[in-house]
Amino acid sequence: MSKTQKPWQKKLHEIIYEADTPAGKLFDIVLLIIILASVILVMLESVKSFEKHVAILDTLEWIITILFTIEYFARIITVNKPYKYIFSFYGIVDFLSTIPKYISLFFGGIHALAALRALRLLRVFRILKLARYLGASKNLTNAIKASRAKISVFLFAVLIVAIILGTIMYLVEGEENGFSNIPKSVYWCIVTLTTVGFGDIAPQTPLGQFLASLVMILGYGIIAVPTGIVSSEYSNQNKNSNNDNKTPIVHLNSQSCANCLASKHQDGAKFCHNCGHPLH
Amino acid sequence: MSKTQKPWQKKLHEIIYEADTPAGKLFDIVLLIIILASVILVMLESVKSFEKHVAILDTLEWIITILFTIEYFARIITVNKPYKYIFSFYGIVDFLSTIPKYISLFFGGIHALAALRALRLLRVFRILKLARYLGASKNLTNAIKASRAKISVFLFAVLIVAIILGTIMYLVEGEENGFSNIPKSVYWCIVTLTTVGFGDIAPQTPLGQFLASLVMILGYGIIAVPTGIVSSEYSNQNKNSNNDNKTPIVHLNSQSCANCLASKHQDGAKFCHNCGHPLH
Amino acid sequence: MSKTQKPWQKKLHEIIYEADTPAGKLFDIVLLIIILASVILVMLESVKSFEKHVAILDTLEWIITILFTIEYFARIITVNKPYKYIFSFYGIVDFLSTIPKYISLFFGGIHALAALRALRLLRVFRILKLARYLGASKNLTNAIKASRAKISVFLFAVLIVAIILGTIMYLVEGEENGFSNIPKSVYWCIVTLTTVGFGDIAPQTPLGQFLASLVMILGYGIIAVPTGIVSSEYSNQNKNSNNDNKTPIVHLNSQSCANCLASKHQDGAKFCHNCGHPLH
Amino acid sequence: MSKTQKPWQKKLHEIIYEADTPAGKLFDIVLLIIILASVILVMLESVKSFEKHVAILDTLEWIITILFTIEYFARIITVNKPYKYIFSFYGIVDFLSTIPKYISLFFGGIHALAALRALRLLRVFRILKLARYLGASKNLTNAIKASRAKISVFLFAVLIVAIILGTIMYLVEGEENGFSNIPKSVYWCIVTLTTVGFGDIAPQTPLGQFLASLVMILGYGIIAVPTGIVSSEYSNQNKNSNNDNKTPIVHLNSQSCANCLASKHQDGAKFCHNCGHPLH
């Protein structure tokens, strides 16, 4: 494929990769609906009472698979460097979310299909890609990024506490009360520390219940820490962005380069900031 | 009904629609008690052990229905443009919360009554209307409004995580451990991520329990995000309102225009800010 | 009892009511231990396996009751206006926490004792009184006070949501799935919204589980609100107290007036700020 | 052992006690992996399905025990004052985490081994020691320290509420509904207040469910308090550290004195700040 694009390629690129034009917006919304429909389809297939409608579900699945196939090839032929798209994260997701139905033609066993279903769900990440444009706050993303390292260290400490307390609970309660081994005890400890509390395993001895109370009060106290971190970081992000009001603001649009797929170009930009390719 | 109101209409309008005069306050409190009594009545009717007192409950329900009917017509005759009230949100709620008992005269089946009970509960929104006057902080409302969009995007992301993890749990645990289909697995995943943890479904396999632990620790980490957002936005609202102290503050009272029902007039206002109608 | 106190009365008053002298501190610590011991005793009495040690528990209970009796009369004879102490909140608590064992002499039935046990626990409030001196942050108390009104309005709104959603769940799930009446459904809804999730009642129908998911995500979103309020108010309190550093700080001690029991006198105060009675 | 160290001792000291050199870093990472492996081993030993592999697990345990033994003696011979290391906290942990396997040679009963397993887990604290270097935020640690006292007072108040409410629930629900004694009721109350909600015990009577609802709403309201405290303190720490940027910053490295084991020396320091011993 040559460096210069034909007019119809340019037009198609705009529709598929950008959300600025009415046609581009329509494409994204239709895609979102198809993805949601395919996810619901995967869910319904697993429900027992829908087994009698297997023919309808199969037909719908074929329609969606064909639509995804068309979309996949349209994406390939409208970019200058197709291999870049094919081996990008979203390229692989697109491929894996299209292929399962074709594979089922050759290896149509029940068990194989079940494993393939999980792959199909990766399509949902597409929606996440759209969610990015839907206006998730930059401050929020920054706050989460800034907190991530601290929360990781914190969760690591929680995990160690869970292992130690889990072992103690295993020794105290023993196998006869459901704490049949240390991994299961640690699992119970995480269930309790995070205040989920399924109740499938619960301490029965007075000493076990006393220790469980300590674990819960501990969990109650430490649940405050990650919340405090995010809350504080988010406040900082807000303050910083308020101070930044004096610096000139540049609006980035959702336009994406036909050559290198880089997005987030400034309004009025004529060349891609990444590869220098002209932006139509 | 003419544009000019008779004196008794003005008097009644003041009592029903405003909470500034002693009579108006008394009316609101009596109404609140009747609404609460009617809600408790709806609840008691569903309790088995109260079935023997069905005659008493029925009589009380008739008394409340008649009181609501009187109130409904009083509201209509005291405003200049009754159709505006009738088709307003609270007008429809008032109508729907009064009508069920009359309908039960003609279609008195058990099942129909059950469906009507739900409608009756809409009366409770009246109390919310009063709660507005009880002094819910403006800052709080603003903070929730400012956070709403961000929390929505966040909850959408949580939902996608729940769908993906739910499908994985369905494949890992399978039907024999209660994860009988993907929607049920997603339901379990939401139960776990939100730290509710009913325990009606719980992972039984070691791998399932390991994945559940990851889900819980993830839920523990992300519960911090919406809290951080609200907390930070609320702080901002507080700061802004502190800065606004220099601008002149105008007190709005709960007076409501007899012509267009617009409320929140300035103290000492002589004409409605919405339609120009004189305020008594 | 005359307005002037005898020296031994003054001495005893200092020990019992004040925590500044070594003797006063020792008295408070001993009292705290006795109260904790009595609470543990009440707990143990209810445990089946301790029923064989009933004689020991009874003896210990008599010792504690006699100690409380002595303390009660010592408090009465060391203040100038005993009736003021007797009818104060702590006076009544002291009386009620001492009397049960004496009553059991005359009406020694099992059921009567159970009801009296609850009264005994009011002794624990004594510890709270001490906790006040142990240094609970003033900022924290102020933040809770400032947030209380807003949190109340918020919890009221949560209650209304619980009633409406509870009724809908009752109609959807019905009696056969444990939602046997509306109050029970509302109870389930509160259990779910607060993320407690006992699991004694859990939705069984797909529609019920879908609605439950919405309730949980809603609860997940709104748990953020009270946290945000307290967190923000507490930050404000901290800021204000930092600004207040320029105003002169007066230290209040735990000394309490022998005449009117008013406490929190300034260091070096010679007369009670409440009744003008000399402070020894 | 003399005050002066031989060259190989200096070299070994650097590797074992410091994380600045490549060899030191490698040593720490290898140690971390061994500790994690030993913890996983302890867990697997408790799992029923691994009982047939007892020979392999036993061999692996012996390898790890010997590695720990070598490490323990290497630590002793490379410091100038071995007794200081032996009786330090980490010295005791090292000893206790190495000894169990040797003890099992003499008293190889099943029950004795179970008790020893708990001791082995103390090895995990080693990882915590490393976590310190991995970059846990100083602000976070300070915020937790600053909040600790207030959260303790708060949790103490929660405990008292749990005792009082637990006793009331015991009286209301009684033994037939699982609230078989007051300690168990208090345990249930803590489970509920912390929003864990196992569901092994759940109120059955309408009054009990009503009281439980109050407990849950209370818990919902007060979960906000510790979060608010940490969040606010953490914000303060961040602000203070921003202001402190003007004061000269000194970088502390992880180097540790060969004589007194004191760590946290300034970059470029030539003598131990604690004992004056030259730092290699």
Write the layout of secondary structure elements.
The structure is a homotetramer of 280-residue chains.
Chain A: H1 7-17, H2 22-45, H3 54-78, H4 82-86, H5 89-98, H6 100-106, H7 110-120, H8 124-133, H9 138-173, H10 182-193, H11 206-222, H12 224-243, E1 252-256, E2 263-266
Antiparallel strand pairs in A: 1-2
Helix pairs in contact in A: 1-2, 1-3, 2-3, 2-8, 3-5, 9-10, 9-11, 9-12
Explain what the structure shows:
Chain A has helices at 7-17, 22-45, 54-78, 82-86, 89-98, 100-106, 110-120, 124-133, 138-173, 182-193, 206-222, 224-243; strands at residues 252-256, 263-266. The first copy, chain A, has 280 residues and is mostly helical. The first copy, chain A, has twelve helices and two strands; from the N terminus they run H-H-H-H-H-H-H-H-H-H-H-H-E-E. Mean pLDDT of chain A is 74; it is low at 243-252. The longest helix of chain A has 36 residues, at 138-173. The first copy, chain A, has two domains: 7-129, Four Helix Bundle (Hemerythrin (Met), subunit A) (Up-down Bundle), CATH 1.20.120; 135-244, Orthogonal Bundle (Helix Hairpins), CATH 1.10.287.70. Chains in contact: A-B, A-C, A-D, B-C, B-D, C-D. At the B-C interface, helix 2, helix 7, helix 8, helix 9 and helix 10 of B face helix 9, helix 10, helix 11 and helix 12 of C. Chains A, B, C, D: It is found in: Membrane. Chains A, B, C, D: Its main location: membrane. Chains A, B, C, D: The chain crosses the membrane at residues 29-47, 59-79, 99-119, 153-173, 210-230. Chains A, B, C, D: It comes from Neotamlana laminarinivorans.
